[in-house]
Specification:
Elements lengths: L38 E5 L2 E5 L6 E4 L10 E2 L2 H10 L19 H12 L3 E5 L6 H11 L8 E5 L5 H12 E2 L3 E2 L2 H9 L4 E5 L5 H9 L5 E6 L12 E5 L5 H12 L5 H14 L3 H19 L14 H7 L12 H5 L2 H6 L3 H12 L10 H6 L6 H7 L3 E4 L2 E4 L3 H7 L6 H16 L6 H6 L1 H10 L10 H15 L3 H18 L2 H17 L3 H17 L3 H17 L36 H4 L2 H9 L1 H14 L25 H6 L120 H13 L10
Parallel strand pairs: 1-8, 5-10, 5-11, 6-9, 9-10
Antiparallel strand pairs: 1-2, 2-3, 4-7, 12-13
Helix pairs in contact: 2-3, 4-6, 7-8, 7-9, 13-15, 13-17, 17-19, 17-20, 19-20, 19-21, 20-21, 21-22, 22-23, 22-24, 23-24, 26-27
Amino acid sequence: MDPISPGPEEYGHAGGRRPHRDPLAADFGPNTPAPARTAHLVSGDLLLTVNPVDGSEIEPCPPAERPGRPRKRGAAERAEAEHVSRPPVPPGPAQHPLPLLERQDVREQLVRLLARGRTVRLTGPGGSGRTALLDLVADDCDDLAPDGVVRLSGIHRTAEDLLHELFHTVYDAPGHRPERLELRAPLAEIGAVVVLDDLEFGGAELDELLDATPECAFLVAATPDVPAPSADADVEEVLLGGLDRAGGVEILERTAGRVLTEEEANWAGDLWFESEGLPLRFVQAGALLRQRDQLRAETGAVDEYGVFEDVRPVVNTVTEFADEGGPLPSLGEAAAPAPLLASRLSASARATLRFAVALGGEVPHQAHLPALVGDTHADAALGELATCGLVSPAGPRYRLAAGVQAQLEAAGYGDDAAERARTAARHYAWWAGHPSVTPERVSAEADAVLAALAAVVPPVEGDDGEAVRLARTAAPAFAAALRWSAWERALRCGAEASLQSGDVPEQAYFHHELGILALCGGRLDRARAELEASIGLRGALADKRGTVAGRRALALVADRAGELPGIPVIPGEPEGVPVPPVPPVSDTLVTPRIVPAPAAKGLGLRRLARRNLVAAGSGALLAAVLGTVVTLGMTSHGDDDKNPAGRADVNPSTSQDAGDPAADPGPAQDPGTTSRVPTSHSATPAPAGTYAGTAEPMPSASPSAGASGTADPGTGTGGTSPTPTEPKPTSPKPTKPTFPTPSSSSPSPTGAGSGSPSPTGPGTPTGSPQSSSLAATPQDRETTQTATAIDPGWAVPSPM
């Protein structure tokens, strides 16, 4: 059933006759489940996909999907937003607002301060009329600022919540939640009078709110128990006290609708002294007098709907209002009139009060009262409560008035609070999960939903999972509506409820969502802990889709933290900053260190070859695999690219036999790397045939080299070679003996010594690992095979 707009089939009014279905074949018919309500949001530079089934997914936002500069709303849009921010008008006869008594001077003072751009804090006790005064001042300041007046409610709101609500009230940015740094620029451009009622914080948090909005003038209202602004804050303090005796009597007469008798006037004086002149007490006392007059006019009469039938015993025990000339309520009853007032209301109004007590003072929206109370006309109960002063406006909703909660609990209205809370939780779980209910509508009822959720956590014996179901359905709606503080509260309640009930799949879901939320807020340590807990639980449940989503989010956490598994970190460096191993740069030759073959074939080589491919480079990878310290100072300094003869050649066979085509039969392959090392393109830079320190290919003696068949040792192309230049003299070094090149099937021995070039026989193939003394041992060739087997595109470069 659609809770907002019932279809034509409600109450038996079907639009057409349903086709007959065979009960035996009912399971074979189409079974289309309700689609999951997903939402795509942009938080900073992250793209969040709210998925209520498997858990939300998060990834870096593509540039094409990043929102542009937000647009400010026009005057008509601001008027609509202001209308939505006010509480709904209760059904029933129109109520005439009471005039503002003895507040005109304060009203003019507030308008003058706001017109000068000052921030004002209006402090007064509950029931002093702060909300009514704010409404009048907001109407007076409607044309003071370019962005008009913005009304906000501070109940259960932090400074961050209020900044985001202010941003979305002034700007049209659906599905976009800027991060803190990104939020500064648009907030600095807002010029509005911000009327903030029921502020719950002060000090440094209030300073943060004011500093982020330098072009706004704030009018905040708070009770005396709220922390004061900091000493450095430029905030004007205005105190709001009670009324004098004449003002209290006038409110009493306006509420009762008649002039007071002498006895009632004396009674009003005692009430003024006891209540310190709070206007709310006189409104409630006037409602008592009005009820007394109604009972006098209807002595012995019972409402045709049985409204007062179950109330008569209570009335007789409290005071005989129905008797002609009955006594007035006592001073104690007038000071705490909620139980007496409630006893004279309808059954639906009293049931609504019981639900409000169970929900911590939150009054459900009037559209939910018929379903909660079980009376189709229960929405009229809100009008009864507002007329008696038992409820007061709080942003876009109603709450129990100041002091009413404690008075009703003392009268026994909270005895069945647990059962009422479970009923509300079941109702809200069904309503929030209905496809026709938008996330914005659930967000508007967030305080009542969260109050019902908190009342059923932890679950008690006999609980059938109301808390888990409500958190499961409400949390995605809060996330989609960008109410992330409510999202976090719902997730934490759901995690606790699922832990208490032993529901492991739901535990994994709530931990995953908490990790996503922490990642969006930049709390990486918290995000890592929550995601790892979720992955562990889903791994135990063999939930592959959920595990994949969790691992993707965890990888994003590692990326944000600058972590890359598999790369060593130098002690003393910042944690998470990868530092690849870099070979030392020197102009001297050192004796290579040979690493045993088992170490080269271990997992360290495999891990480095895969993960450090780009970070370390080919030369650094070889140094990490073989443990060999090589030199990069083999190349000459100066004009090496323009003078190939000035370069130190690392292939002696090529430099000596370049003029004889028969001495260079072409690039031969080592038996262990024949099928893996690419050699078909002699001009392509390949690690196995390049000069040390450059990306230039080594010369090749292919048949298409040129007319003379001689390859240019500097360019690797055929044709006439330029006049050779003698290589630069080097320091004398011991000469190594020349060994004949064995057949390709037997390894060639090598002598131990330095890595300097040495002449080789005419049969030594060019570019082969056998032409170097560093890759001549069986262990090194085996290492070459291992490294090439890991990645066929990589071959061990020739040592220098």
